[in-house]
Design brief:
It is built from 16 helices and 14 strands. The chain is an alpha/beta fold. It has 2 domains: about 230 residues, Rossmann fold, CATH 3.40.50.2000; about 190 residues, Rossmann fold (3-Layer(aba) Sandwich), CATH 3.40.50.2000. About 50% of the residues are buried.
Length: about 475
């Protein structure tokens, strides 16, 4: 097989509209950038009625949305029909020269249906089967046809895991989750950490943005980003803030169905003056500069983009302990093994507050933890290993070191903003090469480990009585 025999070597299928934002969009664009830098031409595919405003990414990868509309009488079984609609579209396209990489179960099933001999790799950062109930408002009870739609998505997900040639996941905890979901995935599942947008926070932004919120230099700004929904569970952060040192301030970037409830909750705990609702912001990098710590409170969030980005920017991170099936936080295992962050018991009242108070009381510890996390991010969070896995799945030898996706990629952040591309210097290109060389090789499913016991989460017994 020759990578140059077709107009495009790699098709990348994203789960959603390319005009939108979210983790799949960030990952898809980041991988496309890395492939282009490695000499693999790409086509980025999404699902939407309107074509993207820009025809290509800054690295030259074409963008194309595929409409997934149905006849009015079939809308009730829409999710069951999406793979068939996408397959129909793919049949009118030339076969990619090397492989199809999917960030969606629908694209995976469609690509394998149209090109059964083509290597198809699916990138899973979460199983909808384990988090579907968390994507709807608390008070909503799905009716019959809603449950039919959910069942269609879950059926596509299981089918995708069964037919994909390679299943790429970011942590070994997620490897275990995938194999538990579908035992036949053993042997085809690879642990490969995702790449990361290369933000460069400017020190001058720190003072400007903190002044906007009325935050003093002595205050400790805790940052959370994402959708205000049941899964992100920002209400837990607000309740824990009430237990922290008064110097702790909370900034919530995003929006969603739970916003009004969160505002009321802050009022009820008499800490509204310490909770700042920022909606989506135009420049997330500036807020990483302004923050003293970045936190996840999610119930299901295997490899959060905001945590990866914060680590890259040298900010200490605090995430839940992985405790399936109650809490899925696969990145916690990586942080434990690499000593790159702090963990807490998500189900223990006061545990997060204790971790935050440790950092508030010891700013030197917070800085040291941020530096350790940044080292981990720069060693592990690049798309080079994923590109090499694509070559391997296609039975080809990579031409050389694969650079990381760089900051020139204009990708939407988890805050919903787009970052403008800028010229990369020779130093930046050299850094990409060094990071790729330093990155650990991808690990197959059955890997061992010796986690650092000192990084274990606090227990309820260790939480002071007055903070429970």
């Amino acid at each position: 097989m020759n990578a140059g025999t077709n107009p495009r070597d790699i098709y990348i299928g994203c789960h959603g509209d390319l005009n939108g934002w979210g983790g799949a969009m960030i990952a898809g664009r980041g991988l496309a950038s890395a492939c282009e830098r490695a000499g693999l031409s790409t086509l980025l595919l999404g699902m939407g009625d309107r074509q993207p405003g820009a025809n290509t990414t800054p690295d030259g990868s074409p963008l194309r949305n595929v409409a997934v509309d149905l006849l009015p009488l079939l809308w009730r079984v829409h999710n069951w029909c999406i793979p068939r609609i996408l397959a129909k579209e793919l049949r009118h396209m030339e076969r990619p020269g090397v492989a199809f990489v999917s960030f969606s179960p629908f694209w995976t099933v469609a690509a394998k249906r149209v090109w059964p001999e083509l290597p198809v790799l699916v990138r899973f950062c979460g199983l909808l089967s384990h988090c579907a109930s968390l994507t709807r408002p608390r008070e909503e009870t799905p009716g019959f046809w809603k449950r039919v739609g959910i069942a269609g998505t879950l059926a596509a997900e299981r089918r995708a895991v069964r037919v994909a040639d390679r299943i790429l996941v970011p942590t070994r905890e997620h490897v275990e989750e995938i194999i538990g979901f579908e035992p036949s995935a053993r042997g085809r599942t690879r642990e490969i950490p995702d790449g990361c947008d290369l933000y460069e926070p400017r020190p001058e932004d720190r003072q400007v943005l903190r002044e906007q919120l009325g935050i003093a230099d002595t205050d400790f700004l805790i940052l959370l980003c994402g959708s205000f929904d049941r899964n992100k569970a920002f209400d837990h952060a607000i309740r824990e803030l009430a237990r922290t040192d008064p110097r702790g301030q909370l900034a919530l970037i995003g929006d969603g169905p739970e916003r009004a409830k969160l505002e009321r909750l802050a009022d009820e705990h008499d800490i509204a003056q310490r909770v700042h609702f920022l909606r989506r912001v135009p420049d997330i990098a500036g807020w990483y500069a302004a923050a003293d710590c970045v936190v996840s409170t999610s119930i299901y969030d295997t490899f959060p983009n905001v945590i990866k980005e914060a680590m890259w920017c040298g900010r200490p991170v605090v995430v839940p302990e992985h405790d399936p099936p109650r809490i899925y936080a696969g990145i916690s295992g990586l942080l434990k093994r690499e000593e790159g962050g702090r963990l807490y018991d998500r189900l223990c009242a006061g545990a997060l507050a204790q971790r935050l108070n440790e950092l508030i009381d010891n700013r030197g510890l917070a800085i040291e933890l941020g530096a350790c996390g940044q080292d981990v991010a720069k060693r592990l969070f690049n798309w080079g290993n994923t590109v090499r896995e694509i070559w391997s799945a296609a039975g080809l030898n990579p031409p050389g070191p694969t650079p990381n996706a760089g900051a020139a990629t204009a990708t939407p952040s988890m805050s919903g903003s787009r970052n403008e591309p800028h010229d990369r210097s020779a130093d930046a290109e050299k850094r990409d090469h060094e990071e790729s060389e330093a990155s650990v090789p991808c690990r197959a499913a059955n890997t061992g480990g010796n986690p650092d016991e000192n990084a274990a989460p606090v227990s309820c017994d260790s939480v002071p009585e007055h903070r429970r």
